[in-house]
Amino acid sequence: MAMAPTVKVVLGSLSFAIFWMLAVFPAVPFLPIGRTAGSLLGAILMVIFQVITPDQAYAAIDLPILGLLFGTMVVSVYLERADMFKYLSKLLSWKSRGPKDLLCRICLISAISSALFTNDTTCVVLTEFLLKIARQHNLPPHPFLLALASSANIGSSATPIGNPQNLVIAVQSKISFGSFVTGILPAMLVGVLVNAMILLAMYWKLLSSQKDEEDATAEIIAEEDVSSHRFSPATMSHSTSLNSQEWNKMGTISLQSSPNVNGQKGHVDNTLRIRANTLDNEIHRVSSGASDSARIPIESKEVLSTDVSFQRREETVPSKGVASVASSRDVLSVQSLQGKEKWKRMLWKACVYLVTIGMLVSLLMGLNMSWTAITAALALAVLDFKDARPNLEKVSYSLLIFFCGMFITVDGFNRTGIPSNLWDRMEPYAQIDHISGIAVLAVVILFLSNLASNVPTVLLLGARVAASAAVISEADEKKAWLILAWASTVAGNLSLLGSAANLIVCEQARRAPYLGYTLSFWRHLKFGVPSTIIVTAIGLTLIR
């Protein structure tokens, strides 16, 4: 592709540079507007500077990718409501045999979870829980945080829905879901294992200095901490809520806290009436009589208690009998309602899991990925049989807007001719039918993914790498796409700024209440460089 006019090249490069700066450093002091606004600013500048026309800008937005991203986020929200991530958290502490066992579990569970529910979601859900485990067992947090972030990145490479760059590759390459998985899964599994071994080798002494036996009490506390939180993966936040056991406990306390028959009975019956709405007129009379007696001044009660105690006992025996029978009936009614609600929730959770499994099976069968994800999201909204607005509000629409701006900005930069000319010079040395060519291509992808982020790298290189490989053979074209997916994803482990998952773990750990921990750039880099190089190299030999 020939270079565009000089003015367009300069203005297009300036627009892309502003986008890159705000994408990598969203809180830059002189323009702290964030990634989303930064991507829109880059897109608008491309149009204002006439690098691309408005029609070309609209055409640059890839709707299938946005649809797939939206659908997977909605499904993740409903899976969170169905306690899927709470169960994953419990797996980490269930019968754990020490720090090393915990670290290996983190690597495995975060990798599998990321492949199915995206790496960002996994990091949002598990970060605070890992900090709690580390605190309860007096363990250093950073080995476990590094295991979470790095394994989430590696695991997300195995499926098209694991991370945003894989979504782009799957849609642009038209590789089926099943072919994508079978092509990268061996590399992912070996990569997770090698990554865990590197972590154990680096922190063996540090983990060995801690007690290698699990404290059962602390494990129970950890599970209770998880069950008391409801995470919102799409919005990277969580809020506390009561589970069914806590509600039952509150109900039991309310029923048992009635020492005074006359003074307190009215309050208890009233509480039961509010919850069950089944009290009859007899209970109403008893409650009214008890509440009237409760309004008598304390001094009057003391005087009357010695004079009319026998008469009161005679009068209240029938009332207490009626109240006792009715109260028992109301308790049974409340318990019946609770039982029905429990079964309804279990049935709903089973439906959520079945719909999710159906979505994965449909993707494996080769159905359209975007519409499959959207259909699954809509099915979950219908099965919920409630207003879907609270769930849809948890979707990260800022991420969708960021993608729209990024599509336009990258397309404008491509039209300057700079990426094509750079690739023309590098292409002879990056042919994937030679080991040296694969190594050169991987190095370029690793460098650009950490310089310009992995999704822009895929958008810039994807079509060019695939076209170059297609000249060799159709199989090599597919392999080129998979190499791009593998290298751009694992490249996120190189530095703290390499992927959004790393930043999520860092920010979640730093802001965790009472558990705050700062994962430094250099500490991550010390582990990230050797892990990225070794895992990438081994994985490249296994991609088919």
UniProtKB/TrEMBL annotation:
InterPro entries: Cit_transptr-like_dom. It is found in: Cell membrane. One of its GO terms (biological process) is transmembrane transport. Keywords: Cell membrane, Membrane, Transmembrane, Transmembrane helix, Transport. It holds the Pfam family CitMHS. GO terms for cellular component: plasma membrane. It is a multi-pass membrane protein. The chain crosses the membrane at residues 6-25, 32-52, 58-81, 184-204, 350-383, 395-413, 434-452, 482-505, 525-543. Residues 27-491 form the Citrate transporter-like domain. It comes from the Eukaryota. Signal peptide: none annotated. PANTHER family: SILICON EFFLUX TRANSPORTER LSI2 (PTHR43302:SF15), TRANSPORTER ARSB-RELATED (PTHR43302). This is Citrate transporter-like domain-containing protein. It comes from Acer yangbiense. The lineage of its organism: Eukaryota, Viridiplantae, Streptophyta, Embryophyta, Tracheophyta.
